[in-house]
Each structure stands twice: as structure tokens, then as C-alpha cells.
Amino acid sequence: MRTTRSFLLPLTISLAVLVSLFPIDPLVEGPVVTLDTVLLLLVPGLLGSVLALVGLGRVLSVLLTSLACVAVLAWRGLALAPGHAPTHAWAGLTGDGARALAEATLPIPIAPGITWLLLMLAATSWILTTTFAEALEQPGWAIASLALPFGIAAVVQPEEVALDLFLGVAAGYVAVLLAAPRPVSPGFEGSRWLVGAVSAGLAVALAVAVATFLPMGEKQPWRSNLNEAPIELGDPTVDLEENLHRPDPVDVLRYTSSDGAPHYLRTTAMTRITTNGAQLDSMRLRSGDLAGAYDFPGTKVDLSISMAFPSQYLPVPFSPEQFRADGKWGWDPDTLAVVATGQEGARQSQRLDYTVTSVIPQHDAATIAAAKAGKSPDGERSLEVPQDVPARVADLLAEITKGAETDGQKALALVEFFQSDQFTYTLEAPGSSSTSALADFLLNERAGYCIHFSISMALLSRMSGIPARVAVGFTGGTADGNGFRVTTDNMHAWPELYFEGLGWVPFEPTKSYGGGSSGEGNQPAPPPSTESAAPTTPEATPSPSPEPTPTAEASPEPSPSGQPGASDDQPGPADGSSGSPWFWPVVGLLGLLVLAVLPAVIRWARGWWRLRPSRAGADLASAAWRELRDTFTDAGLPWEPGSPGAAAATMAAGLGREAATDLRLVADLVERTLYAQQAPDPGELPSATRRARRLILGGLPPTQRWSARLLPRSLIRPRRR
């Protein structure tokens, strides 16, 4: 089947791709189509039209215009990230965009990373549409790339996708069909229904794949990236209570730190404070890198940790930036808790060695005193106060914070209050942390352990308008050789308060038991570098082999990325971090490999399409003879014009015996198909043609043979009209 060429097709594709982007507009804050987008699509469109007018080969034209599109994309990427080396700029923009998709709610704010991803989507759509309509001469397939943005929008936010947006996509698709090469024979029309079906399926698959990386809440029921079912997490307060009266401490873990100092190791944080006490909130687990998930000041520290007991969580200093651990792990963007997601659950942490890099908040009292309460990323959840808090508690709060002029001063006043001689640390206090128990702790008994101190300070902080939650984990442990040993006695709870510009700041309100500093030497400095004293009592830890009480469900949610690692949506084995430094070099090598084999793949696809099973008769005969002509061109052999029989007789003289025999056989089959009253078996011609090509190329010297296969010259020869 021969086709005519239209110089309008490249520009039509540019316009169609431009219109196809509009369905994404409701998903972002700001325009989807910008001057950069127009420039990105206009340059290859104009170049393609010029190349069509001068008669350049179709495939070579597609390659050149695609390179032009990529060049404009790379140039605009450098403009979006000025002052950076090219590879760092592009990789950084991709990572920033992936993180923005993972963390933002709809509509997504426009930022350089998001703009970069939109430009990448436009460039990919243009290249795919051009490949379908030009290189493969199948404009019907263009629906897959043109409908991709609409499919993403329809899956992510169907209520915002109006019918007129699809009409724009359909109009662009029809325009591409009208501007595409026109078939001279009717064979193409007979397969259009098949092309349409394949294209529709491809469009749906692509839309689902790309939409996987967008923020969608619970709208992806087909995904099972972290586990086959919701993960039931245990109640940390129950674990505390169960281990408070453990007669003998049990080793939990050992660790070394890059700064040689002990550090609090956090497992999770309880965001909900209800009538029944502090509780875990539902988690939205993500996989891959944590870098950029939490961007507030602190000191970077590396820890190497060896676990000795099974745990649902990886104990890590707050805030973790990256970690490496065998098994499958997810992390919650709100609490930065690292949770086991593999089928082994808590068992995968037993005898586990892992590393973590954390940025630890360290603020002096002066910085905190000047701080203002911030707006927590979890919204109002960290400000909610149970309705049954007695009025006397509010009166007590007013008395404690009297004279405090800032939110930070209120927080420091609360620490001073709890650390005062009015309170006593004791393990004999009731384990309940309900509102009534906390009120009794604050107003009457004033005796308890870490859970009472931490939840009470979080509650009073919320009543003061400061977002607060309760972290659970371990204190720093005791010195042990060149590291530290953490046992069940080191389990602890402490409040975290959210301040503008500082993020979540940990505090230590728990009263030192025994009235002074512990002589055991097993406590680090309090989480914040305030002037308050640290608790010095050993406290309990989660049971070494917990079968936790279900209290919250962790619902898997996508990750982008980008985060290196991300990758696949499921946390990969042995890596929850930003990945190897070899990642981008490997990606670059794979990209070069794809470019190297692309001409061979295109040439193979053209040959397969010419000799496809649905072809028959004169159409098949002409296609088979063109396939042999291109084989001679690829091999660098002279092609003899004229009738197939006469041409084959002349060309066979320069071939090996078997190749010459098959060449004459193909010529005979072509002539019989075209002119004989009884045509040969239609299945014989394709197999004979493929065998002849294989033998012709196989008879060449090795260098010439590989050149013919990897860099087929027929792709750059101008096509006959």
C-alpha cells in the first residue's frame, strides 16, 4: 500500500496535541498551555512541514523532528532551573514534580517541577502521535496518545471533566486523520476497526498507568502496591502499658550515629486526641524516597541500626530523609512513620540491619520563644480537642501561660509547668489516657508516666491554638562500645508541636523520676534543645513480639518517583531511599541503547506490517517486492528495476546459492499473484520473502550485515509517492 504525503500533518499534530492538554486544566492551579508549551509543539511541527515539502524520508523526518522536540524540552528545562548543570536541572525538576504530585491535593499548584512534567507530557504525546501517523503510517493509533491527558483527568477527577473537553480531543484526532497520508489501496480501510480497538485499549492502559502517580486518595481500587489488604497497626499506648511492668528489660536494637551522640528513635505519631485518649490516624502509605517530604531546618545525622525484635515500624530519628532496609516498607507523609508493608509484616524487621539519614530539629529556647504556631499539613486534625475537657483545665491553662506573649513562649511555659516539683513520675499511675484520666492527672493527682505527660501537653497546646501530636519511640539508650544499646526500658512518648518556619518541634515534658538526673546514663538530651530537663527514667517499649490491637488502618497511596525508588509503586526490596548514585548513569545508558536499536525496531515493524497475515492478492505481492527492494537497499546492494522475474535473474548473480534461489522464488510468486489466473497460496509469499531477506543479509560480511540490521538505509531513502 502506497501513501501520499501531506506537509500539513506535522502542524496538525501540534495543534491536536495542544488541544488534547486542556482536560488536565482542572487538575492544576494555573494554565496548562503556556508559551513554553506552544513553543515546544510549534518548533517540531514547523520543521516537520518543511522536511515534508523538501521530500525527506518519512522515518528520518520523524527522527529529526522528535530530536527537535526533545531539544526544545531540554532547553526549557534549563530555563526552569537556572544555575544548575543540565543533568542536575532535569533530574531535579523531575524529582520536584514527582514529589509535588505525591504530596499536593487537587488542584495542584503550578511550580517549576509541575510545569516540567506537563512539558514532558506534551513532548511525549507529540512524538508518539507523529510516530503513529508518520513513521508507522497508522494515524488511527494516534487516539492512544491524544486521549491520554483526557484519560488521566477522567480517572483522577471525573466530576471535573466536561464533555466539551473530550470534543476537543476528538476534533484534534479527526484533524490528524484528515491530514494523514491517504491510502491508494483499500487494504488499510479493512483493518481500521482493529486499529481502533487496539488504540482504545492502549489509551486506557496508558491513562491508568500515568494516573497511578497522581494524588487520588482512594480512587485507585485496582492498585495493590503496598499490600493485599489494609494494614492494621497496633495501638502504641497499649504497647506502652503492656511493657511498663516488664520484670527484665529486653534488647530492642543497637545503633551507631555519625556524630557519636545518642538520639531519640521515633516509630510513629498519634494525631488524634479523643475522649479515649491519643490514637493513630489512618495512614496513606507511599513508597520510595522521603527526600523533600519534609523540608525544615535541622542537623543531618546518619545512623546504622541493628534490630533485635519484630516491629511494624522502623525506629528512626525524626525527620527521616532516606533509609535503606531489606523487605517492603512504606512511609506516611503526615507522620513520616516507616511501616512494614510486606506479607511478613513485623517479622521482616527481626534481626534486620538498616541505615537511615535524618534531619533532626535542634532549636534553642530563644528560637522557640519567638515562634508562631503554624498551619499543620494535616489541617485541623492536630488542633481538635475533645468536647468533654473540663472547664477547670482551661482555667489551669490560662494560669500556666499567663504572661506568655507568643505561641513559643506558651509551649516553653507548659514544659516548665510539667517539669516542676508539682509533678511526680511514677509507673503506678493508671494506664488510661482518657479525657477524664488526663483531667485528673492535671488537676489532682499530678503523678504519671510519659504517656500522661506527653498527651496532656499536646492537649493543652491544642487548646492554646498550637497544632500538636504525640510521638512514640525510644530514648537514646545506653553507651555500648562505639554505639548505643536500646532496650524495652527506653520506650518513650513525647509531644511534637508545629511552628511556622520550624515545622514539627519535639518537646520533653516528662518529669524526671527520683527528683534529679538519672545516674544510669541512658538518656540523651531532650528532643528539642530547650532549657528544660530531660526525663531520666527508663520506660517501656512495644512488646518484642507484638500481635497489635487493631486501631487504625494504613491505606496504600501512590508515590511518584520520584523519588528514586519510586519506581514501581510497591516499595522495593532493600531500598526505601533515594536509590543508588548509578541510577541516572544507568538510565542514560538505557536511553542510548533504546536510541541505538530504534531504527532496527522501526524497520522490523515496517516489514511485519507489509507482510501481515491480513494482506493478500496484489496488495501483498507489491508489499513483498518492496520489502525485497528495501532489503537490497539495507544491504548496500544494487537494485535492478523492471519486472520481478527479469530483475531477480540479474540480481541473483551477486548472491549466494540459497539466497539466489529464494529471490527467484519470491519473484515467481509475485508475478503469479499479479498475473496468473490461479494465484498461489497467500501464506507462501510472506514466508519466502522473510527467508530471502534473512539469507541475503546473512551472506554479507559481519560488519556490513550488522550495519544493515541496526542502521537500515531504507529508512532514510526518500519514499516514493
UniProtKB/TrEMBL annotation:
<dbReference type="InterPro" id="IPR038765">
    <property type="entry name" value="Papain-like_cys_pep_sf"/>
</dbReference>
<protein>
    <recommendedName>
        <fullName>Transglutaminase-like domain-containing protein</fullName>
    </recommendedName>
</protein>
<dbReference type="InterPro" id="IPR002931">
    <property type="entry name" value="Transglutaminase-like"/>
</dbReference>
<keyword id="KW-0472">Membrane</keyword>
<keyword id="KW-0812">Transmembrane</keyword>
<feature type="domain" description="Transglutaminase-like">
    <location>
        <begin position="442"/>
        <end position="511"/>
    </location>
</feature>
<feature type="transmembrane region" description="Helical">
    <location>
        <begin position="33"/>
        <end position="54"/>
    </location>
</feature>
<feature type="transmembrane region" description="Helical">
    <location>
        <begin position="140"/>
        <end position="156"/>
    </location>
</feature>
<feature type="compositionally biased region" description="Low complexity">
    <location>
        <begin position="530"/>
        <end position="540"/>
    </location>
</feature>
<dbReference type="InterPro" id="IPR021878">
    <property type="entry name" value="TgpA_N"/>
</dbReference>
<feature type="transmembrane region" description="Helical">
    <location>
        <begin position="110"/>
        <end position="128"/>
    </location>
</feature>
<dbReference type="InterPro" id="IPR052901">
    <property type="entry name" value="Bact_TGase-like"/>
</dbReference>
<feature type="transmembrane region" description="Helical">
    <location>
        <begin position="582"/>
        <end position="605"/>
    </location>
</feature>
<dbReference type="Pfam" id="PF01841">
    <property type="entry name" value="Transglut_core"/>
</dbReference>
<feature type="region of interest" description="Disordered">
    <location>
        <begin position="510"/>
        <end position="579"/>
    </location>
</feature>
<feature type="transmembrane region" description="Helical">
    <location>
        <begin position="162"/>
        <end position="181"/>
    </location>
</feature>
<feature type="transmembrane region" description="Helical">
    <location>
        <begin position="59"/>
        <end position="78"/>
    </location>
</feature>
<feature type="transmembrane region" description="Helical">
    <location>
        <begin position="193"/>
        <end position="214"/>
    </location>
</feature>
<dbReference type="Pfam" id="PF11992">
    <property type="entry name" value="TgpA_N"/>
</dbReference>
<keyword id="KW-1133">Transmembrane helix</keyword>
